[in-house]
Write a structure and sequence with these properties.
The structure holds two protein chains of two kinds. Chain A is of the alpha+beta class. Chain A has four helices and 14 strands. The radius of gyration of chain A is 30 Å and the shape is flat. The termini of chain A are far apart. Chain B is an alpha+beta fold. Helices cover 38% and strands 29% of the residues of chain B. Chain B has three helices and eleven strands; from the N terminus they run αβββββββββαβαβ. In chain B, the strands form two sheets. In chain B, strands 1-2-3-10-9-8-4-11 form an eight-stranded mixed β-barrel. Chain B has a two-stranded antiparallel ribbon with strand order 6-7. In chain B, a hairpin with a 2-residue loop joins strand 6 and strand 7 (116-117). The two termini of chain B are 39 Å apart. Classes of the chains: A alpha+beta, B alpha+beta. Chains A and B meet through helix 1, helix 2, strand 1, strand 4 and strand 6 of A and helix 1, strand 3, strand 5, helix 2 and helix 3 of B.
């Protein structure tokens, strides 16, 4: 009986302490949560207030000027889709293939490549009709072949489709022979597009057209 | 007569006080918006993608150059801890139970054998559906999705318990250590949305948590 009383008393004490600590935790938490609705802000007065209003207008104007006014290209590397857009309107959309995310190491151990499609804002830097591929070192290493010393041995014709749009650092939007892989992450970083989509994008875009990749 | 004067003086005083408070609110709102726009303008000027986590509108927006690239609607949101500072915060760490791994290509190892194609790539379907993003300044964003099924309901219950009991105790520990943290927990509609957020939020991506003064 005494033991039972002791256990019940201990249980009540532990529960009480637990609830007390919980209540204290909530109390301190609410002190912080209250600050969410009342952030500490310095509100200027008089002339400073007028200057702040003016500056706000300037920022808004700058922000409005930033988004592209004409044609631009958006590439979603996760869903492997592209959108040719003008303002909020989507003119054309379709499937692409983007970077596989794979890693290749040079057997010498000195170099490493990560086959990601770069993300961010780019611009069309070159437009090429009937492009040919100058195979980089990694293409030979990946296939377990010796890297040729002669430039002509690197050239491969007809694998990039009819058009290519360069957006810097050796990356291109180009065609593909592997159309069944459109919609998948298979490339070494370039963006592959189906023939008809590529032709439309190539004709719509000009040098300086913005490309957004995410 | 005297009573009437006191009454009207009180009414007038009340109106004056509420008007002054309303003006102060408008000014605070304006200053907060200005600070937000300044931060966003700096982000938009860079060529990188950035995010805006609008906690009032419950929306996660991926942008670049002030252009909206993708929007995720947040179906469930809760926050704990100190308010998020109105400043640009970089993502410092992504944590999940089973982080996706990149494949290492073996040189000379042909992918296509006998016409069968085995794709070895890191794709969106390999991304986790529940994870945590840690930002500079002890701010963490937990992301999950609304899965269906009994196990998921059980997991949600576990998370709710952990949140409502674990968080107060964590606050106590932080008070004791004289530290503060912010934890934001969001639930997205579909698993694919959570995977897309994990995909789009690369290490180092910068963004702003935006909680405008209400009104």
């Amino acid at each position: 009986m005494a033991l039972r009383k002791f256990f019940l008393g201990a249980l009540a004490a532990v529960t009480g302490l637990f609830l007390l600590a919980l209540a204290a935790g909530y109390f301190f938490s609410f002190q912080e949560i209250r600050q969410w609705t009342r952030p500490s802000l310095e509100v200027p007065a008089g002339r400073e207030w007028e200057a702040a209003k003016k500056k706000n207008q300037q920022i808004l104007k700058k922000m409005e000027a930033l988004p592209p006014k004409g044609i631009y290209i958006v590439i979603d590397t996760g869903e492997n889709k592209f959108y040719l857009k003008k303002g909020a309107e989507t003119i054309r959309q379709g499937l692409v293939s983007t970077g596989s995310g794979d890693i290749l190491e040079d057997p010498s151990g000195k170099r490493q490549w990560i086959f990601d499609t770069p993300r961010g804002r780019y611009t069309v830097k070159s437009k090429i009709h009937k492009p040919y591929w100058v195979k980089p070192d990694w293409a030979f290493i990946e296939e377990g072949e010796a890297i040729p010393k002669n430039l002509n041995d690197r050239v491969e014709v007809g694998v990039l489709g009819d058009y290519a749009l360069g957006f810097g650092s050796g990356y291109f939007i180009h065609g593909t022979l592997y159309t069944r892989l459109l919609g998948r992450n298979v490339t070494h970083g370039c963006v592959r597009m189906g023939d008809e989509d590529l032709e439309t994008v190539y004709k719509a875009a000009s040098i300086g057209t913005k490309i957004f990749i995410y | 007569m005297q009573r009437r004067v006191i009454y009207w003086a009180a009414v007038l005083g009340g109106i004056l006080i509420s008007t002054a408070a309303s003006i102060a609110d408008d000014q605070a709102r304006f200053i907060q918006k200005k600070e937000f726009l300044e931060q966003e303008l700096a982000l938009a000027a860079s060529p990188d993608c950035y995010f805006i986590c609008d906690l009032r509108e419950k929306r996660l927006v991926l942008k670049s150059n002030a252009t909206i690239l993708r929007t995720w609607e947040i179906s469930g949101l809760r926050a704990w801890g100190k308010p998020v500072p109105l400043k640009t915060l970089p993502l410092v760490k992504k944590s999940t139970l089973n982080p996706p791994q990149r494949n290492l290509i073996k040189p000379g190892d042909k992918k296509e054998e006998g016409g069968a194609f085995e794709l070895q790539a890191l794709e969106i379907k390999d991304m986790p559906t529940s994870f945590r993003l840690d930002f500079e300044g002890d701010i963490s964003l937990s992301v999950s999705s609304r899965k269906k099924g009994a196990w998921s309901r059980l997991a949600r219950l576990g998370r709710a318990l952990a949140w409502n009991i674990g968080m107060p105790f964590r606050t106590l520990r932080l008070v004791h250590e004289k530290k503060s943290q912010t934890t934001i927990d969001i639930t997205l509609g579909e698993e694919r949305d959570a995977q897309a957020v994990y995909w789009a939020f690369y290490d180092g991506i910068k963004g702003i948590f935006w909680y405008p003064i209400g009104g």
